[in-house]
From TrEMBL:
Pfam families: HATPase_c (PF02518), HisKA (PF00512), MASE1 (PF05231), PAS_4 (PF08448). It is found in: Cell membrane. It catalyses: ATP + protein L-histidine = ADP + protein N-phospho-L-histidine. This is histidine kinase. CDD domains: HisKA, PAS. PANTHER family: PAC DOMAIN-CONTAINING PROTEIN (PTHR43304:SF1), PHYTOCHROME-LIKE PROTEIN CPH1 (PTHR43304). Residues 459-673 form the Histidine kinase domain. The keyword rRNA-binding does not apply. The chain crosses the membrane at residues 16-35, 41-60, 67-85, 91-115, 127-153, 165-184, 205-226, 238-262, 283-303. Residues 323-392 form the PAS domain. GO terms for molecular function: phosphorelay sensor kinase activity.
Length: 673
């Protein structure tokens, strides 16, 4: 209920507002018509028809949807003025009304056609459309209808009536339309004519009316008390108003000059008030006022355009300055050293990290070449810069050592990218340097550690295996040559010693293999996995037959890798599938392949004991076992070695399993292409 009441109130307000506008239109029309009548020359020669400018401005300013309202108001205004105030015959009233409405509709249609969506009189092109279409073309139809009406009603020759009617409309439109547009914008609080700024400043408001008063005073003196043609003396004040207030000054100034001039001239004062025929006086007045109005509007539009371009230029300059500050701020937040060089090796821009790295201020570096900043050999750097600029191909991620101005040598990772010449006089190169000195030191330490580890592996291979071989040999010697002299319990101890020595030897071998795979380099070749699997199955043929195992394979792809390491990888996985099977179960192994995006996936599935999901990450760690050694012998390094092999090949190994449901291992290789 409340919402309906609010909607009814809004509709009621809209209706009252329309009624107010309707009445205001009629009132303004009649006031301007009466003012035009009071400015008529002796003999009823009307020099200006002010309602023409008012009606055209209202129609052109509003949308076509509201033209019906203003059309009715115009018809009613014409009937009231001509039929009741002027007491014209109905035929004459109808003819005058038709002439005025047709002129307004034609002019508004032309303006909205050529200036869709805007009518601000702030462009020279708009002034041209307004002058030609609104002022000069639209009154032709009105003049023709009006002169024909006078011809049929009173017998007035059309060639005498038409010029007076036509130019009266021209002057009325030129003088009143701009003022009406300013006042409408003023009333609506819009800033398109700078009315909001004018009203908002008391100083500007007072300044405007001071100039209007000055212009009115000068115009009265010129057109009432001076009998020589010095009308041009109004120009300085008019120029002053236009320069200061643009369209507002032009519109109000033209209106004041027109009213003062026509008032004085119609009463017979001034240079055009004496000894001149009414027709000549009318034409001269109309030409003068039209010229003043056009010149004021053109000057106003030119000034607005100039000031608008100046403001845009200033705004662009501020935006550019803000953009430069933001760009510099972004550059300064980058920890790497960034700078831009031209083809002459001058550093045109850099960030604070680069300046601090060189031990200098940004201002001390910008605009200087690297030779000026730090004399020394720069041949290779310059060659790289010129090559990037010439070819347009970036150089990314190469490492080099540089000497700073302080003499310190640092290692950097260098990225050089070409910058096109768009917006600049010549192309250049963007250089990004990342200090990797600490990384280099760590790599050197790591290399030294690897060398120490390799040396340790060699020593361990010799010094650990030699005692183990001795222990194993002596124990076997005791067992074989002194078995009849040793008690049964002693022979059991000898067997355990041999087993421990063998297990220790295997563990040392696995550790050495794990170390070799982790640190060693290998050559990548295209490897056919079908051949690798066939060789591994051939090596394990005895175990497969012993356990009555079933192995099914499908066609496997070619991957990029080390043949020996891939052979060891598949051997470890097949051995586990054959080993970790419940008693009485025949092992079943299936090998297949598929693709995953740009990767190759090789799947090995079995029906073994399975792996608890909570242990699936732990099985790839060294020395991790899930079963007792007595039940399933081994060192616990097989899957750790397999995982490291996949890492060295740029892939990964995945496991999917559950206790009692076997295990599925997926080997994910990068595509060899």
């Amino acid at each position: 209920m409340k919402m309906k009441w609010i909607e009814l109130m809004k509709k009621s307000e809209t209706r009252w507002m329309l009624l107010f506008k309707f009445v205001a239109y009629i009132a303004c029309y009649l006031v301007l018509a009466l003012l035009s009548r009071s400015l008529s020359f002796p003999g009823n020669f009307a020099a200006v028809w002010l309602p023409a400018g008012f009606a055209l401005a209202v129609f052109a300013y509003t949308s076509k949807k509201s033209w019906w309202l203003w059309g009715i108001a115009s018809i009613l205004s014409g009937v009231i003025y001509n039929g009741y105030i002027q007491d014209k015959e109905p035929v004459v009233t109808f003819g005058f009304m038709l002439a005025n409405v047709s002129r307004t509709l034609l002019g508004a249609t032309i303006l909205q056609w050529r200036l869709p969506g805007r009518f601000r009189l702030d462009q020279p092109s708009e002034i041209a459309v307004f002058t030609i279409g609104g002022c000069l073309i639209s009154p032709i139809l009105s003049g023709a209808i009006g002169s024909l009406t006078l011809l049929f009603a009173y017998g007035n020759p059309w060639y005498e009536s038409f010029p007076s009617w036509y130019f009266g409309n021209v002057v009325g439109i030129m003088v009143v339309s701009p003022l009406t547009l300013v006042l409408i914008g003023w009333a609506n609080g819009r800033n398109q004519f700078r009315c909001k700024d004018l009203v908002g400043s008391r100083c500007n408001f007072a300044y405007l009316f001071l100039l209007l008063g000055l212009l009115a005073g000068i115009s009265i003196v010129i057109f009432r008390f001076i009998s020589v043609p010095v009308s041009f003396l109004v120009a300085p004040v008019m120029l002053w108003m236009v320069v200061r207030f643009e369209i507002v000054g032009a519109a109000m100034g033209s209106f004041v000059v027109a009213i003062v001039m026509l008032t004085c001239t119609s009463q017979g004062y001034g240079a055009m008030g004496e000894d001149i025929s009414n027709s000549t006086r009318t034409i001269v007045s109309q030409v003068f006022l039209t010229t003043v109005g056009v010149c004021a509007l053109v000057l106003s539009a030119a000034l607005q355009r100039s000031r608008r371009l100046t403001r845009r230029s200033q705004q662009t300059g501020r935006r550019l300055a803000n953009l430069q500050r933001e760009t510099q701020l972004m550059l300064d937040t980058i920890p790497s050293m960034v700078f831009y060089k031209d083809r002459n090796n001058r550093i045109l821009r850099l960030n604070r990290s680069a300046a601090a790295w060189m031990g200098m201020l940004i201002e001390e570096i910008q605009g200087k070449s690297t030779e000026e900043i730090h004399p020394g050999p720069h041949g290779q750097y310059l060659y790289d810069d010129q090559e990037v600029i010439r070819t347009g191909v970036a150089k990314i991620g190469y490492e080099e050592s540089v000497v700073l101005p302080s003499g310190e040598r640092r290692w950097v990772q260098t990225d050089k990218m070409p910058l096109p010449s768009a917006g600049r006089k010549e192309p250049g190169v963007l250089v990004v340097l990342t200090d990797i000195t600490e990384r280099k030191l760590i790599e050197e330490e790591l290399e030294k550690s690897n060398q120490d580890l390799e040396q340790f592996a060699v020593i361990a291979s010799h010094d650990l295996k030699e005692p183990l071989r001795a222990v194993n040999g002596y124990c076997r010697f005791l067992k074989e040559d002194f078995a009849d002299q040793l008690p049964t319990e002693a022979l059991d101890f000898v067997d355990k010693a041999i087993e421990g020595a063998d297990r220790m030897t295997q563990m040392v071998n696995d550790l050495l293999e794990y170390s070799r795979i982790s640190r060693g380099n290998f050559e990548l070749n295209l490897v056919d996995l079908n051949l690798i699997v066939a060789e591994v199955l051939k090596d394990l043929d005895g175990t497969i037959k012993l356990k009555s195992a079933s192995v099914k394979t499908t066609a496997l792809p070619v991957v990029s890798g080390s043949e020996s390491q891939l052979r060891q990888l598949f051997q470890n996985l097949f051995i586990n599938s054959l080993k970790f099977v419940a008693d009485g179960i025949q092992p079943q192994i299936e090998v297949s392949s598929s693709t995953r995006g740009r990767c190759i996936v090789v799947t090995i599935s079995d029906n073994g004991l399975g792996i608890d999901p909570k242990d699936q990450k732990r099985i790839f760690q060294i020395f991790q076992r899930l079963h007792r050694r007595a039940d399933y012998p081994g060192t616990g390094l097989g899957l750790a070695i397999s995982d490291r092999i996949m890492q060295r090949h740029g892939g990964q190994i995945e496991v999917e399993s559950a206790l009692g449901n076997g295990a599925t291992f997926r080997l994910v290789f990068p595509s060899p292409s």
